[in-house]
Amino acid sequence: MNVLLYILLGIGVLFNGLGAIALVRFPDVYTRLHGATKCTTFGSLFTALGVIVYGFARGGAQYNTLAIHVIIALIALLVTNPTGSHAIARAAYRSGIKPKGAVVDKLEEQS
Amino acid sequence: MLAFFVTAIVAFIFYLLLTFGSGTIGAWSLEEWISGAVLSLIVGAIAARVAFVRNRDGKKSSLRMLNPLRLLLFLVYLIGPFLWAMAKANLDVAYRVITGKIRPGIVRLSPGLSTDFGVTLLANSITLTPGTLSVDVDEESGDLFVHWINVSDPEPSAKTVCGSFPDWARRIAE
Amino acid sequence: MSIEPLVFFIVAACFAFFVLFSLLRIGLGPTIGDRVVGLDTLNTLVVASMIVLGAAFDQVVFVDVAIIYALLSFVGTLYIARYLEGGLE
Predict the structure, then answer these.
(1) Among residues B22, B71, B110, C14, which is most buried (max CB within 10 A)?
(2) Total structural domains in chain C?
(3) Which domain does C68 fall in, by range?
(4) How far apart are CA C3 and CA A60, in angstroms?
């Protein structure tokens, strides 16, 4: 059981770190959003799964409550994260930030 | 009216989940039952018209998501293809962070979905899956503008960019 | 089962370290869009570390705060995005 917990938490930390590095390394807003949104959502998913496994494995009323609350927090994250990133991408485009080094830009041709 | 009750019941379920284990009636105390019922009725009255928006063709569409078959399909989709694509997406980002190999561009997709829920589901799936990020949506035709990190074809079909997701979104929402 | 709080603290410390990266992006970001991306990442990391700290301290209230934080930060992100787009229609 402990090993499963460590694996889940380890995957979570790994991908969250990857998201943070992507945030620093990529060249413009859109590519940064790629890295940041995907990796932090996936990383937080696995971290939360680790805590849920921990909660249900410990048993007892308090730990079950912890696990249920973490499930709700996870749902909130999974719903809000991609929507927020879509909102940022749209706002960035409409405020005039062009994707750097784009080979094709259909949105510009349209408007 | 139905929208009001559905919203209130969903709010009540979330309230009960959050107060799990507070007493002895079921797993909840009497106070939690009463305050939860009152609060969820208030939430239903306020939020019903936001939660159940009208569709482009004027019909209310979200009620069709109450069909248990659709909900089951949604769950299967989340656990199966969606999670797998998300794992691939993260490895893809890892590869691009390490090598720095990108060829970005914004392309237009015509998934041909007619319901708002379907378009939302597809757009959110696209954001979390390999190499794509939804930027804008054409509200009349339901077309999506997608920032693609590795453009191989300037005018792709929905199939080449996001695989089987449009089919899943159609199956779930339409 | 006694070693686990320590593991959770280590995970939370890693998240705190990643927060530094997003702070760097908020500070450097050439455009407002970059800063908002940094802020969004920071919010997700804070939610994740609150969940982990909730398990470390055995306090459910940490997770409750994390739920509210996730929803409110989403509203904040939408607000900034709307502002960037140029006003409410």
Answers:
(1) C14
(2) 1
(3) 4-85
(4) 19
